[in-house]
Design a protein that fits this description.
The protein is α/β, with parallel strands linked by helices and about 280 residues long. It contains seven helices and seven strands. It has one domain (about 5-70, about 140-280): Aminopeptidase (3-Layer(aba) Sandwich), CATH 3.40.630.40. Strands 1-3-2-4-7-5-6 form a seven-stranded mixed β-sheet, with helices on both faces. Strand 5, helix 5 (about 195-210) and strand 6 form a beta-alpha-beta unit. Bound molecules: zinc ion.
Amino acid sequence: MQLFTHLPGSTALVLDSPHSGVFYPPDFRHTCETSILRKAEDTHVEKLYDFAPGLGAHWIEAHFPRSYLDANRNTTELDVSLLDGPWPDPVATDPVVLSKVRLGKGLIWRTTDDGLPIYGRSLSVQEVKHRIEHCWTPYHAAVAEAIDAAHAGHGYSLHLNCHSMPAIASSHATNFPGEKHADFVVGDRDASTANPVLSQRICAHLTALGYRVAYNHPYKGVELVRRYSDPAAQRHSIQLEINRRLYMNEETLELTAGFEPLKAHLQSLVEMLLKTDPRQL
Ligand SMILES: [Zn+2]
């Protein structure tokens, strides 16, 4: 099984979906039930954007599940209490990062969104290294390569980091448990990963379509928008969270009648971005 897909594009637009993977590798060896782990997936996000490669966007998609390795974390965001031996590489000391690791949501998750332990065992240093080497490193290399190619070809890059979120935040998912989410959350880490005028255009486009849109709350964007963005150099990265109740049943994971109209709206958003040159903003 291939662990990710990278379809090179021809435009300045790069889309990536790090959390929609549904292939659970045999060496995962988790204790909690797969049906519970599956609630952490951004299930079907890759289907919502399946028109994008046809429009010339670069596309990167993880097939491994987020609960196996979260590609939207730095490799330093490791919960060393999971390990059966000393970790040889540097780990983060930043308090914001540590609060996420303490929630069980580092690079390798310790608990589900409801706080349930994922493993009944310690993980070996070697198996964590294996996950980084086979999932994190190639995924990040693909995103970096796509953004570099977009920027080299057009003088700017627009990177949309594609996610979905539950209708209501779970107890261990964020620092805002129980929060009722908007339809969309647009995140640019408080205007540090993209020109905020561009972020506001996305908010305005979705608002005009009738959606409730939040900006940088409760999700600002994490490692994938942080790591490859440089707005001053015309490298813009924005995270887009979609409320799952717009397109799926969160219990059965089945698509609902909302899927097609939502996808049409996302296509209109992507078409707007394809016509937007951030150097003119
Ligand atoms: Zn996500």
